[in-house]
Amino acid sequence: MNAPEPAVLTQVMNATQRAMPHVMNTYGRLPFALSHGRGAWVWDTEGRKYLDGLGGIAVNTLGHAHPKLVPALQDQIGKLIHSSNYYQVPLQEELAAKLCELSGLSAAFFCHSGLEANEGALKIARKYGHDKGVARPEVIVYEKAFHGRSIATLSATGNAKVQKGFEPLVEGFVRVPLNDLAAIDAVARSNPNGVAVFLETIQGEGGVNPSRSDYLQGLRQRCDEHGWLLMLDEVQCGIGRTGKWFAFQWAGVQPDVMPLAKGLGSGVPIGAIVVGLKAVNVLGPGNHGTTFGGNPLAMRAGVETLRIMEEDGLLAHAATVGQVLHDALTAGLAGLPGVKEIRGAGLMIGIELDRPCGVILGRAAEAGLLISVTADSVIRLVPPLILSADEALQMAAILCPIVAAFLAEASSPA
Ligand SMILES: Cc1ncc(COP(=O)(O)O)c(C=O)c1O
Questions:
Q1: How many Å apart are CA 202 and CA 159, to the nearest integer?
Q2: Per the domain annotation, does 205 fall within a domain?
Q3: Ligand 1 pocket test, candidate residues 54, 57, 59, 115, most atoms within 8 A of CB
Q4: Does residue 235's CB lie within 6 angstroms of at least one atom of ligand 1?
Q5: Could you tell me the distance, in angstroms and rounded to a whole number, from the CA of residue 177 to the centre of ligand 1?
Q6: Residue 111 and residue 283: Cα distance in Å, rounded?
Q7: pTM of the predicted protein model
Q8: Other CB atoms within 10 A of residue 149 CB
Q9: CA 61 – CA 269 distance, rounded (Å)
Q10: 37 with 78, same domain?
Q11: What is the DSSP letter of 64?
Q12: Which residue in 31, 113, 394, 395 has the fewest CB atoms around it within 10 Å?
């Protein structure tokens, strides 16, 4: 096949495509590249410095070039990067045991990303249903949820933009609004095929929407009553981000299945499905597997991330600095009528405006701050957990005037 005319290609290329012509055009990217980082700061290839309010989207738990993590990873790379799951991998056991200790759950399976952890969770839900004689198992999922971009996880996702063009969607999902126990009870009454409830403890991509504690407690009770699995996606909100190891721990409940990823490896790709007793024997040999999952490098990153977090008291730190950031944002944005709500927990904060605000992403970067905008109108901050209180104040000092100027541009929502 002939290659398309270069002139035709050039016409449709934006600045990033011109800079990266051989990479598929699947992301809207800002026009710079990061070259290195230290702590909560990163530098681009032109030497500009940014305060990192994004942390690789809730990934760089320990920030950049952490002095304890770097030598540990170097040591591991020099020993063994990958080992097939044909053999025992002691680091898998070490990380699984630690995750079980921290969560109160019973066992873990390792993979590499959030969507993969969620795919595995959905397989567990279906198999759990089949094992108890439900031939067409259905999983309760949520409006505004985000679980990933594979065919099954985008089907579970509650966002038409993510799903559009990839139909037919996977069947077997029933959708409900968040924080509405009556909707769950209605499903229980009308649907005999329910096997699991699957939600993010705090919705991330959907706009930083927390599940209320009483709602999670109500879900736990209903899951027990109906024999369903409670599956809490902690891919974004887990691993200390909210000031506890897992966000569900604020509600004093325990899930049966917990997908993890993002922050667990502090930047090294990793995912995990952690399960409790109700789900521990659902998958057996031959039911699930992956070539790269649980490789020694990713496992070492997980083990060291959790060890350093404990050693450096990062849970309490995330809660304290999160409060400093929340307070500074509240003070800095006070009185601006376009600010609807500042919400979240610990270092997972969303600022909801009354209008789409995607342009703030670029403006913040120009001012030396990396952030994201999600659900069109929610500015999201998910910085490294090593962020200092002073850096949190700097973050608010950069961001608040940008938000104020943006809101002043148009007096009413677009
Ligand atoms: C809650 C949640 N689940 C799953 C995913 C998908 O993770 P990944 O991008 O690693 O596939 C994300 C990603 O943003 C997420 O926030």
A1: 16
A2: yes
A3: 115
A4: yes
A5: 20
A6: 15
A7: 0.95
A8: 15
A9: 12
A10: no
A11: B
A12: 31
CA dist., res. 123 & res. 288, Å (int): 9
On whether both 184 and 90 belong to a single domain, the answer is: yes
Residue 3 inside a domain? The answer is no
* Residue 178 domain boundaries: 69-311
Place of tokens 């009770």: 221
Same domain, 203 and 325: no
In a domain, 19, yes or no: no
Q: What is the CATH number of the domain that holds 392?
A: 3.90.1150.10
Ligand 1 closest atom vs CA 204: 16
Among 280, 311, 342, give the residue marking a domain's end: 311
Give the number of domains in the chain: 2
317 in the same domain as 294: no
| 141 neighbors 198 (Cβ within 8 angstroms) | yes
Question: Residue 115 C-alpha to ligand 1 middle, in angstroms?
Answer: 6
Q: What is the pLDDT along the chain (414 residues), one digit of tens a residue?
A: 333 444 443 444 466 667 899 999 999 999 999 999 999 999 999 999 999 999 999 999 999 999 999 999 999 999 999 999 999 999 999 999 999 999 999 999 999 999 999 999 999 999 999 999 999 999 999 999 999 999 999 999 999 999 999 999 999 999 999 999 999 999 999 999 999 999 999 999 999 999 999 999 999 999 999 999 999 999 999 999 999 999 999 999 999 999 999 999 999 999 999 999 999 999 999 999 999 999 999 999 999 999 999 999 999 999 999 999 999 999 999 999 999 999 999 999 999 999 999 999 999 999 999 999 999 999 999 999 999 999 999 999 999 999 999 999 965 554
